[in-house]
Amino acid sequence: MMRGSLILFVICGILGIPTYVTGTATMWALTQPPMPEISKATINAHRDMALWTLFGLAFTGATSWVELWRYRDRRRFSKLSLALVLLFAVVTLGIMTETGHRGGQINHPEIRLATEILPSDPKAGISTAIESLMSNMIWFIPWQIVHFFGYCLIFGTVFAVVLRVLGFWKSVSFAAVHRLLILGLVGVLMNVFSGMLMMLADSYRYVVSDVMFAPKMALITIGAIAVLYFSLSERLWNLKAGEDAPIAAKWVATVVLLAWAGVIVCGRLLPIC
Amino acid sequence: MGLARFDNRGRIEKCSHGWKIHSSPLGIRGELWGWPLALTIHALGTALVIGLIFIISLRLLGLFAAIPYTSLNRLFPVIWVALLLQLLSGFTLWTAKPTRYVTDAAFVLKLSLVVVGIILTLYLYRTIKREAAAWEAAGSLSSLGVKFVAANLLVWCSVVVAGRLTAYLGPLYAG
């Protein structure tokens, strides 16, 4: 039951990424060319709150994942961590509700409250502030360097774990290799943060013009959810040094490897295709 | 979706190295798939080399104690293959703009660091082969060993940074 809830939180966290990105695509669909009844200022208000939602989901998802990961070793959940997860989840839910309300205002004028003052400045808000900062090369370069280190950590970790499951690194137990996965989480957090900043710099190009962006987001979602299997399978966890992994685990490992390799391929081709 | 599609927003021209591939002994001249293919291989190779160097280094520095020192050697063949891919794809990329690269300070720095990194990593491989059993018995490396591992990791991290600066600083100071 507890494990199930944590898994659900992790999946919600992962799904936050495609949700935010498709939201950005929707914004451009509604504002390029501009429609008279759609206010960019209202969209930005929704977009700013969505950014906080994404942060909330990332915190909730990451703490849930860490607890699932630690559960393997300790065989019990830490009360403090569970309380933290619950706190993050409740706060995120609150932010999400406000995000939803602001989103509704974009094309449902009937739900606007009489006392509510709608934003009117299309340049206000954190999203547009990040946009203008990040379109400056001095800001762009360091975050791109962070992004490179992040993907090296993710792929290196994935590769090492997959190597073990596929049977090319049998001198270690699966339990020992499983510990490495925390490095992958560090990489994911680095890259979600830096990636979102870079996407905001030129979101029209990324979500509308670049053909490689949608497959990259899809592969991140698939790859991240598939990695959960490594922390859930009992048979894998009990795999001692020298033992061969079950065939189902090898299939999952192959999917994980191909998905993350695909993320790098799509990401590298982003500015080109 | 043409391969060499540029937006009017400027960034793409700064992001990619540009599409004017002048001369190339490898026959990628004028064929636009050659450059992206080499670029993609180079990106995957970077992930393998840096990712696995990170894992090996962090283990040698004392993290992830459940992984035996003696099992680390198994990861090195992957690094050698990836390094070979890096040299081949890197050379292919270099042939596109040979004079631009050799006059780029960031690129020269990167290439020097790669040479240092390869020598240090080869030495690390030989040392692990010889000493892993002793480390396993002692439970850790000597303090000199720890410093060596940290230096090697730092060199490879600098390679990544210098590589990124090669892509960006060049066009910036060339105007």
Describe this entry's structure for a reader.
The complex is a heterodimer of chains A (273) and B (175). The N and C termini of chain A lie far apart (45 Å). Chain A has helices at residues 2-31, 40-74, 79-107, 126-134, 137-166, 174-178, 181-201, 203-209, 213-232, 234-237, 247-269. In chain A, helix 5 (137-166) packs antiparallel against helix 7 (181-201) and helix 5 (137-166) runs antiparallel to helix 11 (247-269). Chain A has 2 domains: 1-124, no CATH class; 126-273, no CATH class. Chain A has 273 residues and is mostly helical. Chain B is an all-alpha fold. The two termini of chain B are 28 Å apart. Mean pLDDT of chain B is 83; it is low at 1-29. Chain B is built from 6 helices and no strands. The longest helix of chain B has 34 residues, at 105-138.
Radius of gyration of chain B, Cα only, in angstroms? 19 Å
Q: What is the N-to-C succession of helices and strands of chain A?
A: HHHHHHHHHHH
Distance between the termini of chain B: 28 Å
Mean pLDDT of chain A: 93
The proportion of residues in beta strands of chain B is under 5%
Query: Major sheet of chain B: size, sense and barrel closure?
Result: none
Assembly state: heterodimer
Q: Percent range for helical residues of chain A?
A: over 70%
Q: How would you state the average pLDDT of chain B, rounded? A: 83
Estimated helix fraction of chain B: over 70%
Beta-strand proportion of chain A:
under 5%
Q: Which stretches of chain B are low in confidence, meaning pLDDT under 50 for 5 or more residues running?
A: 1-29
**Structural class, from helix and strand content of chain B?**
mainly alpha
Number of domains of chain A: 2
Please give the largest β-sheet of chain A.
none
Please report the number of helical segments of chain B: 6
